[in-house]
Amino acid sequence: MDPIIIVMITLLALPNGDNGVHVKPFDSAAACTEAAAIEASDPFVAHVECSELTDGNLTLSFKRNPGQPATSSPAKAAS
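and the corresponding structure tokens:
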């Protein structure tokens, strides 16, 4: 049986428009939950959650907020 791997997934939203995803492993779900509560108090954290990896794989699913405008595809340069 493989060991259980718990990770904290943090989605950042910085004031300059940059964003990123950080993943940090933890020894237990309780330790992850405690750290997630601290991270959630940071104003530059858009979302944080703890998750258990399935077969050592982490699958992320990004869903656009209903009020967020869709990003258009870049225009082709004229030659």
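(Above: one complete record from the training split.) Strands lie at 6-13, 19-26, 45-52.
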